[in-house]
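Standup notes
- DV: blocked on the single-chain target, sequence here:
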Amino acid sequence: MNIRRAKITAVSHYLPERRLTNKDLEQTVDTSDEWIVERTGIHERRVADKGQATSDLGAAAARRLLEKRGIDAKELDLIIVATVTPDMFFPSSACLIQSKIGAKNAWGFDLSGACSGFVYALATGAQFVAAGTHKKVLIIGADVMTSIIDFQDRATCVLFGDGAGAVLVEPAEEGETGLIDFILRSDGGGGQFLYMPAGGSLNPASTETVAKKMHYVHQDGRNVFKFAVRGMADISHEILSRHHLSPKDLKLYIPHQANIRIINAAVEKVGLDPSQVAINIDRYANTTAGTIPICLSEAVECKRIQKKDLILLASFGAGFTWGSLLLRWEY
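- DV (later): unblocked, structure below
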């Protein structure tokens, strides 16, 4: 096996059509547009239609990516789907997407890394390319978070939305850099602060778990905020230092879109200028595994990223999980 570099060769995203604004939420829960914007930076979010599942969002993003790259789905070798809202426990959403897009020669699996899922999946997929065993790896970050949110809980219902983003990873050509490095971390001790209590083997679905609203996201916002800021900032510093880079060397910093206050605090600690930061939380809220690839796709579409630009991705999520990934854009 020949060890080689991997690069991103295409990127796309898909968002449901339906918009749920803060004004809409004012009609159903004790909150206000001013309160939500001040604390989160969110103005609206997208919501999947009834019957529209994670695999549908992921497949739509994948089809757009294949069209942009100009290849057939049969050319794909592997599909990795980062999600915490799979259509069902099994089969995996990766298998469902494989069938929906006609990727008959690809195998695949789901990866559960919460809001760090896409960074985990991208780092994982790149290893198959670097090993020389795979040539075209499709990485998808997709979640239908509104399916596991209690819309009577104002602490969580304002934070999340639905969406999907996708990238294609292929071998870099001679002279290209592509994916440079990544650092991935986890600390299971933080699991108590952000989790969904029921639905798994510990608390299978029952009338009791439904009555107690155990199938929804539960969050200790204060502890999540504290760990998220420190985690994303520290791991961003670490990967830059490892490569003797300064924040000024970056063209674009793409952080997980959880909360504008978390993003701003992390950006300040890293020492970045706001012009270097990709933000779309105001329009889409937190799409969990979808936030970073959606931001990346939009940045490419509006030409914020050019060939040879240095890009840093940073994430933090339930687990706790966090990670950073440094790459040279070779699109």
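- Follow-up: The radius of gyration is 19 Å.
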